[in-house]
Amino acid sequence: MKWLFIGDIVGSFGRIMVAKHLPKLKESLGLDFVIANAENASHGKGLMRKHYEELLASGIDVMTLGNHYNAKGEIRDYLDQTVSLVRPLNLKHSYPGVGTLVLKVQNQTIRVTNILGQAFMNEEVQNPFDALQNVIEKEPPTNLHIVDFHAEATGEKYAMGYAFSGKITALFGTHTHVQTNDLRLLDQTTLFISDVGMTGPYNGILGVKKENIIQRLWKQEKTVYELAEDGETVLSAIFVETNQQGLPVTFKTILLTDKVK
After folding, report:
1. pTM > 0.85
2. CB-based contact 202:231 (threshold 8 Å)
3. What residues act catalytically?
4. Which CATH number covers residue 236?
């Protein structure tokens, strides 16, 4: 089974990069399915229905969210109607949609789970360790289980990875928008990376115009975040091939840069 996980898609440039490069990656890598984090796909925060449908049309099979899951209020109106969108599992309040779902590809079952971290995050959530443990103990087993752990702290991500090594196929960190250099197998079983990286504007700071971030951090000015628009773009992803036992046997990071208009 060959699959791809695309890091946080940011704004229109991120969506353009997916539309432009994913068909080529599907062909060259022989992909069977594609997962992507899409919580920033609409103007840098949230996911509007039209952009959800656009990303589906580009070839993404399952989309995960994150701390900006509710940034576009219309998601409440369509989330329960989708079969390929996963919101954070460990929300404390009632919310439409599901935090874990199963798809079937080539007679194999694949579970995708989306979980929010606690350290340095504004969203108050249930304990992420307990949330994932409950899924593993109570939900039917699947051939693959891929977890998008949307969290700030590298240490928390590693703790989650090691706590569940051997129990899940992969735990991929998202949220910090910079692809890390630590793609590895934990205990020779579970594939891990601290952050998959970002798909969107390349020359800003995490996709936002540099000036906005510098003024806020240096001068403590309350600036409005605007997406970088110079055309330089990046696509960050992880390619994985798993065997019949669901173990990763081949894996690599992907980092493509381009210029779009």
Report:
1. yes
2. no
3. 68
4. 3.60.21.10
Total number of domains in the chain:
1
Domain that residue 96 falls in: 2-259
pLDDT tens sequence across 46-104 = 999 999 999 999 999 999 999 999 999 999 999 999 999 999 999 999 999 999 999 99
What is the CA angle 33-153-199, rounded to 5? 40
CA dist 110 and 233 (Å) reads 30
Write out the DSSP string of 109-131. Answer: EEEEEEEE--TT-SS-B--HHHH
CA distance 62 to 56: 8
**Alpha carbon of residue 20 to chain centroid:** 19
Give the model's pLDDT for residue 229: 82
Give me 162's structure tokens. Answer: 């090691």
Angstrom distance (rounded) from CA 215 to CA 223: 7
Contacts of residue 88, Cβ cutoff 8 Å, sequence gap at least 6: 65, 66, 67, 69, 99, 114, 115, 116, 123, 125, 150
> Which residues on adjacent β-strands are paired with residue 63?
36, 85
In three-state secondary structure terms, 242 is strand
Which residues on adjacent β-strands are paired with residue 12? none
Euclidean distance between CA atoms 180 and 177, whole angstroms: 9
The pair of three-digit structure tokens given for residue 20, joined into one six-digit string? 């432009």
Question: Amino acid letter at 65?
Answer: L
Contact 236, 213 (CB under 8 A): no
The one-letter amino acid code at 140 reads P
